[in-house]
Amino acid sequence: MGASGLGSFGLGVATFYLNFLYRALGFDDVRIGALVGSIAIGAVIGALPAALAAKRLSRRAAIIVGGSITGTGIVTILLFEAFPLLALAALLLGCGGVIVSSSGNALVADATAATDRPALFGQQIALGTTASFLASFLAGAVATPVAAALGLGPRDPQVIRLLIGAGGAIAAVSVIPILFVGAPRVRSGGHDAPQRRALFLRFLALEVCFGFGAGSFLPFVNLFFADRYGLSLTAIGAALGCIAVGGSLGALLHSRIAVPKLGQLRAIVLVELASLPFALVAAIVFDPVVAVVALAMRSFLMYGASATMTAFQQSSFAPAERAGAHAGFLIAWNAASAVAAYLSGVVRGSAGSSGYQINLLTLIAAYLVAALLTLFLLRSHQPRGDAIARAASDSAA
To answer: pTM of the predicted model, to two decimals?
Structure first.
């Protein structure tokens, strides 16, 4: 959990400035969309190494390898300005991230009883989003004094690169707690790919819908506040911090309030549906305060549902399958997100700041389809992965 908090804080600082760096280097919305999409493509590419790492390395070693790849991407961003090299850096960020995520989630699931997973994943997400709040708030606040000390403007590429480097250095420190993490024993059968193909494909379809919706807007939320409302970096940092706080509270409360009363599946679907009106409000209002509140409420609901969904997925597969299954889900999510990120950049390039409304409406439509599909595809499914030592091919568990 300590590693998750440190990593989220450092990467939160770095990613806060990425889009602003691209803008400062003179890239238009289409190219920025392509660079953001490259991160997702990198995650797709990294899914195979993630699966291989699950078979050949301990969870801890795989996390360290993934973090090293991510660090290489950040260093590349700091050193180069050419679009192809920045695209390569984005690929490395995505590739390293998927290795860390797949092994990290499997590590948490292996060390946790099935009944405790929704709460623990909620706590993990809450810690990460709280760290992101601090990162966003501080990142927005320090740009001006750092720029003044250097005699430059707050959106000068040199200032932004310095702050990205500081975030990357903090994220690198997160490897220290990982060195002290023990490896829970995984049951016999090694670290396998998912054997129950029908169940795996059902989850995969949901990830495609959520990935497309998320990629259409969420990577550009900092530019949304900058372009649509003309906010300063300090104000944008505060806005993103408020949204992160909403997500943190939702991740903590969903497993404590919604899940006991509704059960996991209904708690996921109903909360996802409840988040959609808030996204609609953010799309149509012209008051930045109302937009922040609406997006914070959307985050409150979706982060809670996301934590429970992650626990639901992990509990559906045998311990030996979990890293492979999670890598597969990330392939689907990130492939869809990459396509959406590129298309959303094209939309904004054509429509200007009003393109953000189209991006948000796309998110709403994709999440609506995903929520309804969740209910339809999983209505009779009960997770029983912990009871399986080695799954039979395409079994119903």
So the answer is: 0.80
